[in-house]
Amino acid sequence: METFGYTDFSAGLHRQSLAGRIPLAGAIEVTRRCPLACIHCYNNLPLRDAGARRGELTCAEHCRILDEITAAGCLWLLYTGGEIFARKDFLDIYTHARTNGLLITLFTNGTLITPKVADHLARWVPFAIEITLYGRTRETYERLAGVPGSFDRCMRGIRLLTERRLPLSLKTTAVSVNRHEILDMKQFAEQELGLEFRLDSMMNPRIDGPPGPPAVRLSPGEVVDLDLSDPRRTAAWKRFACEHQGPVHGASPGDRMYHCGAGINSFAIDPRGRLRLCVLSREDTFDLRAGTFRDGWEKALLKVRQKRISRQTRCRQCGIQAMCGMCPAIGELEGGDPESPADYLCEIAHLRALALGISIPAHGDCAYCGSGPPCPGWRESNAFEGTYERYPEACV
Fold first, then answer.
1. Looking at residue 323, what is its pLDDT?
2. Are 75 and 105 in contact (CB under 8 A)?
3. Residue 118: in which H helix or E strand, if any?
4. What is d(CA 267, CA 296) in angstroms, rounded to the nearest whole number?
5. Which residue among 3, 50, 118, 224 has the highest number of C-beta atoms inside a 10 angstrom radius?
6. Which neighbouring-strand residues pair with 242?
7. Nearest one of 55, 52, 33, 35 to 44, comparing CA atoms
8. Quick one: 34 exposed, middle or buried, by C-beta within 10 A (0-12, 13-18, 19+)?
9. Most confident of 39-53, 169-183, 195-209
């Protein structure tokens, strides 16, 4: 009998779901409330925010929606926030999702995990749990999290989950406050705990007002410096860039705006029950309190996916957009416009291409290209002295 590993199984299902437009993977934000006050977070509200609590879907509404997404073909589900355990009924919601057969990933900061929570998760084991670590020392962690005592509560949560051998991994968001401890966090996760560790250096503006998080963003040079500090990360970027060469978007008005899986085989639902393309997109929502998931998926999100670009920008012909991560949802957050390029990401993409020796085809009026490929103006960057010589190979 022929057998398949999980990676092949997952890839095969995702390919099939694209053709049939099956909502295979979803993300549900159960709350925006959180016991921490992280200065870099784009989506948190105070734990005791009464207005936020009143607006959240009830447990019964969650269960109804879970039944509907399961019937529509959803298999993978992410629970995120805010902090998911800020809801006292979250375990009830989660257990209903598990009884539906969903493969569930939990995003948490770990500070509200108690023996009772850990024991429940041990009985109803999730597919994966990811805890965000904000620093390796108490001083750095709590400077970023903004709450005294939160470091110890996070360490307790990690210990409770590892003691029960739950499928846990750690990750961090690299910002100016904790950059000096990233290597220590990685060593703590991988060497002391034997857990997988993941790093993200991209920082989004807040979804509801002043763009606070970018104030602690790493500079574009620091972001790429982190890429180069880990040989595995560097190699992964190199492979990714070589596999995704050329423009991602259409070259002229009338071409499709969206080129990802959002609204094709994935979706997101916010705490108030609004269905949308992804967790970052805040436009074009469908109210699941007023209609069914199938209505929202087959009509509202399909209509969003049919949107066309309205004007030419430098993104349309950019051959290194895979190095950037720009998408309409990011455009909304960065500049209030899904079609406008994000300068921060443009600069990162050009520095990455330079560091990896990837040629940059001409793509219109671009402030970061200088006199043309391979973007020679960046060779003099103080942050990357010698990187072009270290990574001279072009994709072949």
1. 83
2. no
3. helix 115-123
4. 10
5. 224
6. none
7. 33
8. buried
9. 169-183
Please, what's the largest Cα pairwise distance for the chain?
61
What is the distance between the alpha carbons of residues 94 and 108, in angstroms, rounded to a whole number? 13
Contact 345, 325 (CB under 8 A): yes
- The answer to whether residues 199 and 186 touch, using CB atoms and an 8 Å cutoff, is yes
Name the packing angle between helices 220-229 and 343-356 (round to 10°). 40
Give the Å distances, CA to CA, from 304 to 144, 178, 278, 311, 345: 36, 38, 12, 17, 24
Compute the half-sphere exposure of residue 326: CA atoms within 13 Å on the CB side of its CA: 31
Q: How confident is the model at residue 393 (pLDDT cuts 50, 70, 90)?
A: very low
357: pLDDT strictly greater than 90: no
Query: For residue 276, what is the DSSP state?
Result: E
Question: Looking at residue 386, what is its pLDDT?
Answer: 38
What are the CB-based long-range contacts (under 8 Å, 24+) for 91-96? 91/117, 91/120, 92/59, 93/30, 93/59, 93/62, 93/63, 93/66, 94/124, 94/126, 95/120, 95/124, 96/62, 96/63, 96/66
CATH 3.20.20.70 in the chain is located at 14-218+258-303
Q: Which fold has domain 14-218+258-303?
A: TIM Barrel (3.20.20)
Whole-number pLDDT of residue 270: 97
Centre a 10 Å sphere on the Cβ of residue 133 and count the other Cβ atoms it contains.
24
Nearest to 135 by CA among 187, 167, 180: 180
pLDDT at position 196 is 97
